[in-house]
Write a structure and sequence with these properties.
Two copies of one chain form a homodimer. Chain A has helices spanning 29-41, 77-84, 139-147, 199-211, 219-226; strands at 3-10, 48-49, 58-67, 89-97, 109-117, 132-133, 151-154, 169-179, 186-192, 241-247. Chain A is of the alpha+beta class. In chain A, strands 1, 2, 3, 4, 5, 6, 7, 8, 9 and 10 form a ten-stranded mixed β-sheet that branches. At the A-B interface, helix 2 and strand 4 of A face helix 2 and strand 4 of B.
C-alpha cells in the first residue's frame, strides 16, 4: 500500500484540536481528514499527524501520513481532498513516500509561531482568532528572557498536566521575536526537536509576564531550573499559535 | 453637541454590510455602532459612514461621524465602545472634530484593497474570508489592463444596478498591484475620489478576466468607453475587498 505524506493548513478556531476524540461528537481535524480519505478510498483510512495541536490552534505546515490502497495511487490528492474537506482545512501538498516514513517519529523538529498584538486599547477584528491582544510589552525584556529558553534542558516547568511522557528534556534551538506578518503584530518563532503539552503556550505566557514587568528576565532561569509548573504566569490562549513547519531533513536544528 | 470622528475596523463576514436595514433583523455595522453609542449616551445616536460597504466586505479604515451629548465629552470612546461592540467591529481611533465635518461629504477620496490568491489547487483556510482564490493569473496582462482604469472618466460600465447617482464620472488615481500582506497573496489597491456601487469588485472581476486570458488588456478601453455593464466578466466576491482608508486631507489624490 502506498504511503502518503500530506502537508496541511487549517484554521483551528472551530476544531477541537487535531486528534480524533473517540466516542465524541466533537469536530477534529483528524476526523475531517479521515472522513475525506475514507470517501476517496472506499475504506477506512487511519491518519497519523506530526503534532497534536490543541483546540483553537492553527496550522500552516502540519504533516500527516496514511496508507492508501494501490488502486488509488493515481488520485490527484490535493484536489480530491480539497473537494471533500470543509473550508477550514486544506491539503497544501501530497507526495508518496517510503513506507518507513512516519509523520511524528521521522520528524527531527517543529517550528511554531505565536502572534501577539501589543496594542491595549483595541483589537483588529479580522485577527481576533489569530493573535493574542496583550497590551503594551517591554520587548527588550522579553528578548532577554527568551535567551534562557534555548538549549537542551528539562522543560518540565512549561508542561501542563496531561499525556505522561518518558522525558521532559527537549532541545530548543530558537525562541526569536520578529515583525508579524500582519502589520502591528509581533510573531515569536519557536524551534525545537519536540514540544511538551502546551509548552509553547506556557513559554509565551511567561514571556508576556516578563514583558508586562511581572517577572524579570533573569527569573526565567530559576523557573526552568525549578522544574515545577509555576502558577504565576498564564498559559497563552490557543488562538495566537500556529504550527508552521515540521522538519524532516538534517541538518536540523 | 460635540461631533465625533470614529475610525473603524471590521470583519465583514457576518455583517449584511454597513448600512442599517430599516425594519430588518439583518445584522449591520451601523446598527451595532448605533446600539453601542446609544447605550453610552442613554439616547439614540445616528451614525454617518464614509462608505456603504457591501455584505461581506471588510474595513481597516472606515470612518464615521456622529453627534454625542456634551455630557459625554470626556468618555474614553475607543475603550468604551470596544467594551460594548461585538468582537467583529473595533474602534481604532476617536476624536472630536468641527461640526462641519461629515464622514462622507468631507471625504476627498477612498482607498480599497482587494486580495487575490492566485493558486488554483488549494486555498489557505485562515484566509478563506479575506481573499479570492482565482487560480493562476497573467499579472503582466493585468498590469497593462489596470493602466486603462485610471483617470477622470465615466465608469458606468463598472456600476451594478442599485442606488441612482447623479453622475457616473469618477477620478481614479491609482489601480496598483503589490505583494499581499499575507505570503502568496497579491493585493490590488484602488484609489479614487469616489466609487460607484460595486465598482471595485467589478474592476477586479475584469482584471481577473484579463489575467485568465478571457479579455486582452486593450479590451478594457472599449469596455469603459462603451458605458454599459458588460456581462462577460463577473463581479468579484465581497470577501477579498477591504476599505483601507478614507482621505480627508489635501493634496489628494
Amino acid at each position: 500500500m502506498p504511503r502518503l505524506k500530506l502537508t496541511l493548513a487549517y484554521d483551528g478556531t472551530d476544531f477541537c484540536g487535531w486528534q480524533l476524540q473517540r466516542g465524541s461528537s466533537q469536530r477534529t481535524v483528524q476526523q475531517a481528514l479521515e472522513r475525506a480519505l475514507g470517501e476517496i478510498c472506499a475504506r477506512p483510512v487511519r491518519v497519523h499527524g506530526a503534532g497534536r495541536t490543541d483546540s483553537g490552534v492553527h496550522a500552516l505546515g502540519q504533516v500527516a501520513h496514511c496508507d492508501v490502497p494501490a488502486s488509488r495511487a493515481e488520485v490527484p490528492w490535493v484536489r480530491a481532498l480539497g473537494a471533500r474537506l470543509p473550508a477550514d482545512v486544506s491539503v497544501l501538498a501530497a507526495e508518496t513516500v517510503d513506507e518507513d516514513f512516519h509523520a511524528r517519529l521521522s520528524a527531527l523538529g517543529k517550528t511554531y509561531t505565536y502572534s501577539l498584538w501589543p496594542e491595549g486599547r483595541y483589537h483588529i477584528p479580522q485577527r481576533r482568532n489569530f493573535a493574542w491582544a496583550t497590551g503594551p510589552l517591554d520587548e527588550a525584556a522579553m528578548d532577554a528572557a527568551a535567551l534562557h529558553m534555548t538549549g537542551t534542558r528539562d522543560f518540565r516547568c512549561f508542561q501542563n498536566a496531561g499525556t505522561p511522557v518518558r522525558s521532559t528534556v527537549r532541545t530548543v534551538a530558537a525562541v526569536v521575536r520578529g515583525p508579524g506578518v500582519f502589520p502591528g503584530e509581533t510573531d515569536w518563532r519557536f524551534c525545537a526537536d519536540g514540544f511538551l503539552k502546551q509548552m509553547v503556550r506556557n513559554m509565551v505566557g511567561l514571556l508576556v509576564a516578563v514583558g508586562q514587568g511581572r517577572f524579570r528576565p533573569d527569573d526565567v532561569e530559576a523557573i526552568i531550573a525549578g522544574r515545577e509548573r509555576a502558577v504565576a504566569f498564564a498559559t497563552a490562549p490557543a488562538r495566537g499559535l500556529c504550527l508552521t513547519r515540521v522538519h524532516y531533513d538534517p541538518p536540523w536544528p
